[in-house]
Amino acid sequence: MQPRILIADDQADILSALKLLLKREGFDVATADLNYTRDTTSGEEGLELVDQLRKLHPELPVVVMTAWATVEVAVQAMRRGANDFLEKPWNNQRLLSVLANQVKLAEARQRGRRLADENAILRASDGANLVASSRPMQDVVRLARQVAPSDASVLITGEPGTGKSLLARLIHDWSHRAEKSFISVNAGGLPESVFESEMFGHVKGAFTDAKADRSGRFELADGGTLFLDEIGNVPPAQQARLLRALETGEFERVGSSRTQRANVRVVSATNADLAAMIRDGRFREDLLFRINTVEIRLPPLRERREEIFELATAALGRKATQYGRAVTGFDAGALAALQQYNWPGNVRELNSVVERSLLLAGGAEVGVADLRLSPDRAAPPSLEEMSLGDAERALIRSAIKRNGGSVPAAAEALGLSRSAMYRRLEKLGLKPDEL
Ligand SMILES: Nc1ncnc2c1ncn2[C@@H]1O[C@H](COP(=O)(O)OP(=O)(O)OP(=O)(O)O)[C@@H](O)[C@H]1O
Ligand SMILES: [Mg+2]
Questions:
Q1: What is the reported pTM?
Q2: Cβ of 164 below 6 Å from ligand 1
């Protein structure tokens, strides 16, 4: 294929001379007659052109030519993104070799990007160890793969630990945005006052701690995917602002009136009943309509028990390698117990039970005792008579005790995120160090 080249200059004779030369050399040539208005010697307008070209096309090879070649102008042009530099009057030999070189480099870059794309597809197609052999999970994966390449907003619902975050990541990997960023925001983990600036960035001086300009997650996700985790926890006052950004792509950094744009694909996740929150006035209905173009529900583990064995075996293999333990499987009793247990914390709970059992196992196989899966240990006998708050308190206390006082480990065992655990501790008036 003929390489295309655009020659831009303010002198007609230069344009025609270059056109003649480059046509003969097999280029497909277009010319643009520039009309420099400010001055003809500083090169400033030419440099501005480099900026504009870069904005339009970040990878287009740009070669700058100037009659006033100084190191200074060369450095400036290269700094603004020019790929090479020539002096006027030009030497035909050097001109042609510079252009041939740039064409070759651009082709190599394109090839490299195609390879990276292909690798991403290969990588993604193994689904990052996703176990999805059950009927309900096959339906989930089929739907996710089907919507991934579109820019449709996807809302993933499901109990804690069912794989919502994992699936969000896979939807990104299966999309055309795979090579761009995947940016997560955990709305539950951010205090209301911080949410806006985390989300949209701020300018220096916007508030006491704003020592410098900072980009928000929305801006960082430009061209890629923004994952809004625990979206039910977005502070009510921020929901309208978020809706506008999602609808128009427009936002302002905190403390700035300059409107910026970002092209973002949104995947959200929640374990909350958003419909009920809408009825209570805690979640905006229009925001829900914006984020749930496609809704994917991840079934709890107890609705796909046929996958328990595969998940447990995979987790055991991973952890055995990590800890260098020669434990190869589960004995019959352990398998039966894994099958029967109710898994309120779903896959996350299964993974942590397996990890602990590996460490406790004495022989080559995990036994039923190593699993420590006695539901009545977690649930005191008088559970029925307790208030919900007391029952939660008792569950959390015993989980922390079982995990040697570690709150993060207890959160993991209960299938809660750390932030959700700390929120609960606060709500229930529990102090971890007094437990
Ligand atoms: N189908 C699956 N195959 C393999 N691993 C899985 C699967 N589902 C979940 N996991 C693993 O289980 C753990 C919990 O999953 P994940 O964090 O995605 O759940 P979640 O639904 O986002 O939980 P939360 O509601 O607490 O945010 C992760 O380590 C994840 O990799
Ligand atoms: Mg998650």
A1: 0.62
A2: yes
